[in-house]
Design brief:
Chains A, B: Its EC number is 4.1.1.23. Chains A, B: It holds the Pfam family OMPdecase. Two copies of one chain form a homodimer. With 269 residues, chain A is α/β, with parallel strands linked by helices. Chain A contains eleven helices and eight strands. The first copy, chain A, has an eight-stranded parallel barrel, surrounded by five helices.
């Protein structure tokens, strides 16, 4: 999915919601455990219930890898089931020397049909560039993350600026707003105006709303640009809205709630 | 495998060689492509041929993920085939917020029997700590990598020191030399004495010998400590020593050559 198509989907649905499929087999409703593939059964129900209210799904690869082969299979089935109308994100935080990042890009863009992969910037240009070589595909590079550990390096001084600022400025030169996004945590609202200054035209993937405590209102007010420019992810708050048989309806209600709130902020733009 | 067992293996075999199984289906000998699982067949032959000359195997997960389900299965079979006498490394460069790193740790330490995982430090403490919670298992955190991109951030100023130095100093406080190693590229020999000063007791995983051009002699002279303290990885130089039917013998000869050179450096300690 390219930038224009993504913006169209956002305008059409009045939503910039990304639903995070951090599907943990220990947290899904008990009655699904008798299914042949409980993780996929859960994802399928969540996708069916939420697809009208979101424009994107983010698959957190860790939760699938933790189940070994069966997990990888559930991930494969899930991304195919989502289809082409939603922007798909492999939240995989990959990145290695060039010849190895080539293989990761192949894994997610060729063996699997993801639109994008999250990428860690620490190893520099040759670790990121292979993800920028596929037509219509995206690298989503870590900028300022939502977790406590962001203070350890990302928010440290790095030659007259903060490290995450250096990352935004440097990495944005390696691609364009057509194939490069950044991860910016919803819990980092104080830095949002500064972040938008460095990267005015890029989309941000914003996790941290819901379970992690970030405010949708604050992000939307401070980080939106003329093309909307943000995808706000909620994972646990949506998919675990209920632990009972009504889990899909409950997820739908939460996703719909976010969408309606988003429609309000979009109306002001 | 714990630190004491690793040091014993190194002393016993007079080798601190790690063989990197970056197995690319496009580069393995043609005659293996008729096997049911060509990647595993290749790895099995390489392991049989090199196991006496190395103390460790490093599986570069990217090359397996690029093949999808079949690749993950080949990785699983390979790590089981290696067994308990070699130190196994999942070269996966993982790292995410705490609840997600928990899942990655589970993937490699519980669903799979790896001794260690390589971890990217950018997201800070809660992204690394989950890998340090398993008895006898290790996190191998990126310090100064072997690639050109190391200059983009790792070698940049970060508050009066270089970023990779800040990483070594900060991260070494999160674990101990018993559960934490660092990745230090063989191509970075100029920095080796400085690196050893910051982290005198830790083991380093040193990639970059062979195809990437690092010197085994230089690393060994500058980075070894009283417990040896280094695992030197060679991937392409060993596993692709020949592209013909004699690939395993050729790999053995190269591994043996490294081992004999290493025996010489160990003799001087």
């Amino acid at each position: 999915m390219n930038r224009q198509q993504l913006i169209e989907q956002i305008r059409l649905k009045k939503s910039y919601l990304c639903v995070g499929l951090d599907t943990d087999i220990e947290k899904i409703p008990q009655h699904l455990l008798s299914e042949k593939d409980p993780v996929f059964a859960f994802n399928k129900a969540i996708i069916d219930a939420t697809r009208d209210h979101c424009v994107s799904y983010k698959i957190n690869t860790a939760f699938y890898e933790a189940l070994g082969l069966k997990g990888w299979e559930a991930m494969e089935k899930t991304v195919h089931y989502i289809g082409k109308d939603h922007f798909t994100i492999a939240d995989a935080k990959r990145g290695d020397i060039g010849n190895t990042s080539d293989q990761y890009a192949k894994a997610f863009f060729s063996a699997l049909p993801f639109d994008s992969v999250t990428v860690a910037p620490y190893m520099g240009e040759d670790s990121v560039k292979p993800f920028l070589q596929y037509e219509g595909k995206w690298a989503i590079v870590l900028g300022l993350t939502s977790n406590k550990g962001a203070a350890d390096f990302e928010l440290q001084q790095a030659g007259g600026e903060l490290l995450y600022e250096k990352v935004l400025k440097t990495v944005s030169g390696w691609g364009s707003p057509d194939n490069l996004m950044f991860v910016v945590g919803a819990t980092q609202a104080d830095e949002f105006i500064n972040i938008r200054k460095h990267t005015p035209d890029h989309f941000y993937l914003v996790p941290g709303v819901g379970a992690q405590g970030g405010s949708l209102k604050e992000i939307s007010e401070k980080a939106m640009n003329q093309d909307v420019g943000i995808l706000v992810n909620a994972s646990r708050a949506v998919i675990y809205a209920s632990s009972k048989e009504d889990f899909a309806e409950a997820a739908k209600a939460v996703a719909k709630g976010y969408q309606e709130e988003m429609a309000g902020y979009l109306g002001k733009k």
